[in-house]
Amino acid sequence: MTRVLIRPGTTVDRDFTELADEMKELLAGAVDALEVAAGLEAKGMSDKTARRYGDPDVFALAARLYERTVRRPAFTGPAANPWRSQEPTWRRGGRHVLRGLLFGLPGMGYVAAAPLLGGPSTGLVLTLALVACWPLGQGLAALACSRPVPAAARRVLRHGVLAGTAAMVPVCAALGALLGTGPAVVALACAQSLYLLAATAALVTGGEVWLLLVLLPGLSVSFAGPPWQLVLVGWAVTGTGVLVLAYERTRGGTATGMSWPSLRMALPYALFGLLVGGLLTFTLIAAYTGYGTPPAATSAAMVALSLAMGPAEWVLYDFRARGHELLQETRSLREFALHVRVTLLELVVRFLAVLAVLLGLALQAAGTSPGLTQVAACSLLTGGALFVALMLQSCGRMAVPLTCCGTVLTAETAVLVLAAPPPSAVQLYGAAALFTVLLAYAVAVLGRATAHR
Fold this sequence. Notes:
Radius of gyration: 30 Å
Strand order of the largest sheet: 1-2
Structural class: mainly alpha
Low-confidence stretches: 1-13
Largest sheet: 2 strands, antiparallel
Shape: elongated
Number of strands: 2
Oligomer: single chain
Mean pLDDT: 83
Number of helices: 19
Number of domains: 3
């Protein structure tokens, strides 16, 4: 070991090389000289100690160590991808497809209600009750998913289903009284709302398979075609099963930890559900209020859109997973922006292709009718717009999708009331504008790395 003479009578017990070798791991990965200085001070070195190495203070010694070391930070491997599940692809994809079926199949329940749907006011009550219940379901799901502990989420769902049902009963009663329908229709609207909220609780807690099983009695009688009284019995059994399932899946919850900040956090999701409900049922509500008749294929297209929500979830998870991987793999922000935008457009096209296939099958089953092409185009654009809005929502961009959806729905309503054109044409132009604006915005903002944190 060499001994370095600093001034007469002062020697260095350890030379500079030995100090650098002792701190080589810190020096190889240090971001700057301040990190090295912090490491020296953590070792107990002071300015007095630094002077033994020929430097006036710790910071000067840290700067000399930092300048003479080649940075070779240790590679720790990519961070775990929270959007990429470890389960097999067939199981992950099957779960998303099953969720799509669960979104679409309950529509068969309206077959059981066909004898009750004698006039326009009945359909309008059920549709408005459905639109009013959607934001409750969306807000409840968002609130439960924000809970860090599963037990707290179950408690939120339990209280949310009860509170939501209690809120929907007077709403349904008021709609029935305002539009002059009987108590049977009000009861059916309340049952519809209770089912939607209970099914939300089952889906959020991962009860997809069980929910499909309890749907089987109602679906079976709907497809078998017995007298409508037996169909009602089958769906009553299904409704009871859904309630039991929701109760079972939300047992054992702890304190909710509910607060005004958490409710404000869920509010944009509830508002999004309300706007989506209005956009999807625009032609139906217009028809019930005397503005023309929707094309016969509208109901079939709604079923296809509901079924497409399962694949939409799958593609959305893939987008978030690939965005996370690109953050690890790309070497510059420009490279990341290019790759993530190409990925976004690729996945939008993939979803539109799946939706087009589902629309083709649904419309073919519905048979040839006037306005078929217009219904298909409108449904494709609406589905694409809502899918892009969900992409933006998953990346924390809520304000613009809400503003765009609200603006389009307001404009459609104003045009219909003031000019009275065919509602299907108004909806088509609104869907085209919404899809164009949201896609352009998504390409711009989702290319930023900060959107994928």
